[in-house]
Amino acid sequence: MFTRDVITGVHEFIGAGTYQYAPAGDWYIVGTHIQQSGNASDTLVQCGTTTVSRNYGKDTADVTENYHCVGAITGSKTGNDSSFVTVSYIPSDQFSNQLIASVSGQIGLSPAAARGMGDIFVVFWIVCALVLVYCGFFMATYIYRK
Question: How many domains does the chain fold into?
């Protein structure tokens, strides 16, 4: 299950054709699904000219992806049978926020708290480094005193 900010586009191909799910932009494709009535054609989901998902004649199960797409998200189909294609994507500027929200949800924190935890970890490592330096000077004076 995706978060509510994920955009899901669906299109039914009857015969050969192409369909644009999203205009040229900076996207993350997070999931695809292809269901096809027969096995007389191929169906593709593409980012620009790069194939992201493809079935060879019959259904492709739900595929959860993390594909960074810079370009238009399109679907195309050959042959005369029908297919139903679902593509889920999110703008890349929202993707990092979704990732933080996903991780923070798994550990029971709000997204703001998860961002704050990153700052706390930086301060923690700086304090650890300062303690080690202090201990090093203390030990040096203890060992080398006359």
Answer: 2
Nearest to 67 by CA among 51, 85, 84: 51
Sequence-ordered list of residues with C-beta below 8 angstroms from that of 79, at least 6 positions apart, any chain: 15, 16, 38, 40, 41, 42
CB 62, CB 29: distance < 8 Å: no
Q: What are phi and psi of 73, to 5 degrees?
A: -100, 120
Backbone angles phi, psi at 6, to 5 degrees: -75, 135
pTM for the predicted model, two decimal places: 0.62
The pLDDT of 57-85, averaged and rounded, is: 84
Q: Is 104 domain-assigned?
A: no
